[in-house]
Sequence to fold (1505 residues):
Amino acid sequence: LTGSAIGSAKDAIMSDSSSGHAIPALAFDADHTTSWEADCPGDNCQPGTAWIGLDMMGEQHEVRCFRIIQSGRRDAQVSEINLAAWVGSEFEVKVTYNGLGGNSWNQRPAPPDTMWRVAYAERDDQECPGVPPQKYIRSWGVTEIEFFNDDACTGKLPGPEDNVDVICSGTREVGMAPLSGTGPQLAFDGKMTTTWSAQCGSSGKPNEDVDCRPGVEWIGLDFNRRFSGVPVEVRCMKVSQSRSTGSECCDPAKTLNLERWNGTHWVLAVWKHITDENVVQNINGPFTNMAPCADLEPEVEDAVIRGEASTNLVTGVFTQKRNRRENEACIIPSPGSIKLLSDSFCDKHSTCREAGFKGYCCPVDESPGAATMSRCCCKFNLAPARVFSDEMDIDQNRETISNAPEVGVEMIAVRAAQVMPIIGLVMSILFFAAYAVPKPDAGPNGELTFALRMWYRWCGPTHRFLNSGSMLASGIHLLIKRTPMDKPSTLIAKRLLFCVIGFLFGSMSIYWLFAYFVAESILKAILFFSFFIKWSKSHYDPSDAADVRRLCDVLGIPLPGQEERVYGLRIPEAGGVLMGFASWIGLGIFTLFTMLFDVVLVRYAFMGIKAVDLLVSPMDILKQIPNPGVDVSETASMMYYLVELFEMIYMTAILSAFGGAPRCEGPVVIISAIFLLVITQILVRWLNYDYFGLLRAAQTTTNKTRPMFQKTIAVATTAGVQSGIYIGMQCLMLISGRAMKLVKVDPFTEDPQWTCPYPGEFFSVFTGRLFLLLSAFMTLVTAFLCANGHFMGQDYILEPFGKKLDLDLAKLDPDGGGEGGGFMRVSTFLSIIPTTLGVWIDGWNVEGYLVKERGQVYAEELKMPEVCPECGFAHIPYINLMAATGKQLSLSYQLLPFGAVIGKACEYFNNPPLLYIGTELKCLVISPSVEAVNSAKGRKMAPIQALIWNTQLLLAYVKDWIAPLVVRIGTIGTYYAMVYYLSQIDRENVKDVGGEMWMQILYFIIAKFGTWMFLPVASLFLIGLLFKVDPSRETPTPEKEAKPFHYRPVIGQVIHGTTLGFGMAVWLFKDSKLGFSITMCVVLGAAVGAGESILAVIYCYALELCPNCDLSGGLCKITFGLVVAVFSARLCTLNMVPVFFYLMMSVMALSVIPATNLGFKASPWGLDGNQAPSSLWPLLSSARVMSGPFGVGCGVFASAGPYASLTSAFPWLYRDQTLMTVIVPGCLFLGYLFGTMYAAASDTLCTKRAGKWAMLVGTLVVGACGLLVHWAIGLPAGLIVGICTGAAVEQRQMQEADRRNYEPPRYTKAALNVAAPSMGSVSNAVGYMQDDKHGFVDVQTNLPTVTKALTPGLDKPGAITEGTYGDAYAQWQAENMQFYPEEQTGAPLALAGDPYDDPNNFAVVEAHAQSTGSWHSYGDNGHDQGAYQDHALSRSRSPGRKTPKSPSKKHTLGALAKNTKVQSDIAPPGPRDASQEGGGQLIKAAGMAAAASRKSGSASNNRRS
Fold:
């Protein structure tokens, strides 16, 4: 419409006919830069005093719609406008319009639901850490808003770019330099760098307080033009508020309202929920927690507070997503099944957690008698659950249709509860009828009549069952049998009770069967991993000497009893100390990670009894864990969400089965009872199978019987399986607590919380409650009995499981197996009490849990070879079994509501046990180190000797007494710190107390595992070292031949390469300005250092080859080390003060120069005057050359990585020269330590075939994946592939060892006939010769005879020897039958110095007069004979002599005699080497006799047996 613009004049009123002037035309000129302003008295316009419009110049028109843009200033706009028309004498108000804003077009009238806005409701007064404080109250600022038409926030509604108008209350522009001349469209431009600021009553001046009022400040979208007035539904929104640090903007809003235009006014968005009683509930409310503080790591937050990190981390834009289920007012009635379905805490429901809700959500009130009301964001209320009316189905009359399925689990359970009891009652009556029918008489001649046949067919089974004598049959018989003592009333009562039992059994029997099958399925899934136990069983029998030798050969260790000990102590080497240190670090980290899960469990236990602040979730506590330079937040979140994942799977299964949250009490309590029965069956098997104990036993056995790589895989896999199963079982126990909440003692109590849509639910509720009550009682009683060890070791429980594992576990049954064995043990009672406290007492819990018996039986069945020196037999370490028992009992405690706190005490206090009282477990009550040192005490000791001995005694006490005490203190401290601090944390102190808790836990863990894993090994090492330096001790005579240095060159490589690599990495990261990432800097530094380490070895080896260069070579080495130190120091101190450069140069020079001289030192000289071979050439000419570079890579990562992390997280450190003088050398020496450890391990691997293959393949995989994918993937991938490759090679070596013959020789007597002397000095040399088929020969002689004998029936050669030499033979046996693993010999019998060339000459011994013997090797005929003889010859022949590829087939005395050398003299009788002079004449005579015997052929007629 067009016309002449008119407007109100000063002091004018609407009824004044003369009002109006030409200025109002500025409001109709289509120019947004011009405006009309009402001229009101005192600048205070009253209703009806200010107006503007059009004069139609006498034409009549009806205005049906208008649009208006008002000023953005609150004091220059109105929210309500009257549309008036001139009626001839005055303006008549036709309609009043509300909800107008400014700075944007406002159209009126507007259809309902065509305009949506977000309105300011409450200011956020929370002071976020790191946000600079503001002097003024600032405007509300919005960076971005998005509207969606679905609950998942995926269907985005169009915005201004799609012809949608932006509407707002007004914009604050004056004083906002970045925002001057801007409008509300900035909130919809898709950019996070622009912000719309609400006007908030600002006067237009900067640096002043503003007044943002609820409902007055708003911004939204008008969809009229885009959809032509069609309503739009907004179900989800994303709002990004600004926390800009400007003086005018912006303070975020804590609470926002989503509002819609209802046609006349702005109202809160409303959604309808229809309850099961068809009551309509309107859900409209604010969205809270819209301005949470930035979620930062504590270290980053502290850096922001100190001004060391950018404030953008806390003042940036944070987007919040909210759908209608996350509305503050969306709280709806829920059935009682939610007690079973989910946890009540908000943070256990991801949607509620994202919405910022704290405390109870599902339901919102857990007080007794409170109505069951839950938030719509609970998991069971999320889609596909139908909460709102628009999600429900409607009929043709647009009435909602019930969501209850016509056929489902609930309906089937309700209907079955009406039928199954009747079936049970009928079956009990039929059973009684079968019992009551008397047995018919037989025919006249004893034949079976028809009646008797029918009785045997239908009634006979019942009678046979009742007469079987079983417990169940006896009980039933007692109820239905009539005894002489029964009165009629008693008999009727008994039989009525039998019918009632049948009635109840019929209602529960199908559920019992279902629970059994579910429990068996879960157990089969869990016990699937028991193949690790079966695989860990050693295939080397510790009672077989040959298997023991094979095992020692495979492991590369000495035979039992031949270990090198000092006063009975097994002194570790330096590598053992490094392994102890690595175990300290590794187990400490692993324990810290497992405690993340324990903190979640214990916190929920406190929350369950409302003993702590419910608004502080476990996740809030996990976030306070200190950052060790590596981001552990993801790991913490993973542990937290693990519980949520398990519950989500459980809830999804229930919701899928019931088609939503169950609304009928009967099916829910039945499901709860089934769940308790499943838990009971699993717990009974778990506790009595001793699954954790078997896993620990398997881990110990593989550690003792498998080579390195296979051991690594087995131990890591077993530990992972144990941890995974334990976490899963704990999650299972958490859910069992919910089922307990539904238990009701009175089955007739009415519960209004249930709204079952199916009629006839009484029977299902009644039987379900009884079933649940009975199941809960059985669960508690059975768990109590099993937890106290009353069923421990019973053969009827363990025998099937033992067969699955191929273990005879029935040996554990203390009261005997079979039918004569007992049902349960009652010799001990309440064994769980001392075990919970970590105390073990003989005759109580030691006997109750069969600790000693389990240790012996597991060791015997798994074939663990190591015998405990204190106990005298092999057994699994008792502390391992006690720790496993503590874990299993912890699961029993977690059935109870507060059980997690007590259960964790049981678990912690038994790992290791705090106290043992008794003498049965001998290895737990002795002090071996103290006793050994005391036995070494001399009668008279010099002062230096006394000092050494007292130091050793102190170290022994540290190992045997102080270290165990500190370990126990660390265990108690860890548990106490966790429980105490978790009970004290609230909203006010969560950061301080939470951080202090984690620090205390970390200190206790360091103390515990340092004194458990590292301190004992270090103490023993120092004790052994003091034994070596003690001048009073006998030292072994030095060997004449000197040996080259082994580890020195490798250590020199590590120190050289790590120094240069560290300097290069620091320079690349800080001063090169090349822009490399820290990872690339470390990789390049490691590469440079590795190359320099190899160059150093080559350089020093060249100096070693130079003749007469000792002095000059040493000077060259010093110069080379100095150059490396100076260059490295210059690299890492390029932009620092000169003093720091000189300091670092000194530190590096003091490390590198000694490492150069000592590490690459020339080989030592021996007592024989000869110098040992070069120490450097074996390093350069073998795979060992890579040991140093590998150590350098580890050293650079261990030094440059922490340095870069520290200086990046705390930039001010780089400016503090004093601290840098500590940090840089500290990081460097940390690299030296870890690099040396890794290099030593790599060098050990390089000496083994499996190690070489593992390192080669692993390195290739690391390089390929690191370069092509990422180093974070390449490192673990290379490690896994390398270990698997090494394990495969070890398996091949084990197969080769199995083919070798390690059977020890056995001495057997054999009678030889003695002929009368008739030939002088050589009488009856040979009577005949035996062929190969019989395998033996008789020798008649009266003089020493050199011969070779075979055992009847065997093809392995032995030797006939004299049996009358007393101790001489025993000495010879001790000298010649030693086993040397490094030679891998297969022949236990061999003599040194073989002077003969005949390959058949295995052994040369003597036979004399009338007493002879023979050595027989009774080996496995399946073994490779060739391998056996090859290894035997390799032991008997002298160096340099070739070993024949296969032995000769001739085993006769003639063959021996032909190939022997004739000696001039015959040595006197007695054991001696065949190479001694004097044996040749006899051998020659024997050879001549053998030839004559063959020639005549007459010997064949005179053979004897």
